[in-house]
UniProtKB/TrEMBL annotation:
It holds the Pfam family AASDHPPT_N. Its main location: cytoplasm. It comes from Galbula dea. Its EC number is 2.7.8.7. SUPFAM superfamilies: 4'-phosphopantetheinyl transferase (SSF56214). GO terms for biological process: lysine biosynthetic process via aminoadipic acid. This is L-aminoadipate-semialdehyde dehydrogenase-phosphopantetheinyl transferase. The gene is Aasdhppt. It is found in: Cytoplasm, Cytosol. Residues 112-229 form the 4'-phosphopantetheinyl transferase domain. It comes from the Eukaryota. PANTHER family: L-AMINOADIPATE-SEMIALDEHYDE DEHYDROGENASE-PHOSPHOPANTETHEINYL TRANSFERASE, PHOSPHOPANTETHEINE TRANSFERASE.
Length: 295
């Protein structure tokens, strides 16, 4: 079993009643309830898609029947498989992210993995320079030099979000949350320009000033979305990963899934709840004040 990279365009998904109620039946009751509490339809769709991606992965790659999969969350909120099962892949790792227009999943049979997707958007209520001032402590001086070397504000924002995805992917791989000093990690991004659809592995990371032997896959899914996948050996972060490169998979591209792909192996976990459709229909798609720019 090799690497898995999946993406689902949740923003473009406009579910009919049948699709939404089917999807709701395919997740655990507590997750269904949590998703139903989102104020905006955009967020509910993204969260539901993320859970379906995980269950599809486990059902199809670990061969655990969909309705027997039991997911729990760590204290930091990271989902994990709680089933006490014996598989050929005891260290199988997966991670999901949803932001912007997509939900994405990355999985590895032997490596620690973290994934993050970021959509380049204008900051909602402040200018770009003011936004950068607010975020100043999140990056090192070297990283800011690269970000601000871009030719215009939009390109600077794009590079900002690329760096942010890289940092988040690492934090998600090692399972830490709020409170980690982001200036401890510094990325030397390469190349500066990423072509859509290609997978790059040239970016390097320093931790407390020393280069770490983690691998970072970078993909530009479209004009607006960066994906970063952090890959490290199965040991505590901060240790040297001497043979991580020999364990790396080929450079897998993200496969775009349809709703039919998402639910193909689904077996309902809960009965149909028609009120769940009414709940979804009452939601506004997204905040009115949100700003974005197309280029």
């Amino acid at each position: 079993m090799g690497s898995v990279r999946w993406a689902f365009p949740c923003a473009a998904w406009h579910p009919c009643r049948r699709e939404w109620l089917l999807a709701a039946r395919l997740v655990q009751p507590e997750e269904k309830d949590r998703i139903g509490q989102f104020v905006f339809a955009r967020d509910a769709k993204a969260a539901l898609a993320g859970r379906l991606l995980i269950r599809k992965l486990i059902a199809e790659k670990l061969c655990i029947p969909w309705n027997e999969i039991h997911l729990q969350r760590t204290s930091k909120g990271k989902p994990f498989l709680a089933n006490n099962v014996v598989t050929n892949y005891p260290n199988y790792n997966f991670n999901v992210s949803h932001q912007g227009d997509y939900a994405v999943l990355a999985a590895e049979p032997e490596l620690q993995v973290g994934v993050d997707i970021m959509k380049t958007n204008l900051p909602g209520s402040s200018s770009v320079p003011n936004f950068f001032r607010i975020m100043k402590r999140q990056f090192t001086e070297t990283e800011w030099d690269v970000i601000k070397s871009m030719s215009d504000e939009w390109m600077q924002l794009d590079m900002f979000h690329r760096h942010w995805a890289l940092k988040e992917s690492f934090l998600k791989a090692i399972g830490v949350g709020v409170g980690f000093n982001l200036q401890r990690i510094e990325f030397n991004v390469s190349p500066l320009q990423l072509e859509i659809g290609k997978v790059y592995r040239e970016t390097k990371m320093l931790l407390d000033g020393d280069e770490e032997e983690w691998t970072f896959e970078e993909t530009r899914l479209d004009d607006h979305h960066h994906i970063a996948v952090a890959l490290g050996k199965q040991e505590e972060f901060g240790q040297k990963h001497s043979d991580v490169h020999s364990m790396e998979p080929d450079q897998p591209q993200f496969t775009l899934l349809t709703f039919e792909d998402l639910v193909a192996s689904g077996i309902p976990v809960t009965p149909e709840d028609s009120a769940y459709w009414d709940n979804f229909c009452s939601k506004q798609e997204s905040p009115v004040q949100q700003h974005s720019r197309s280029r």
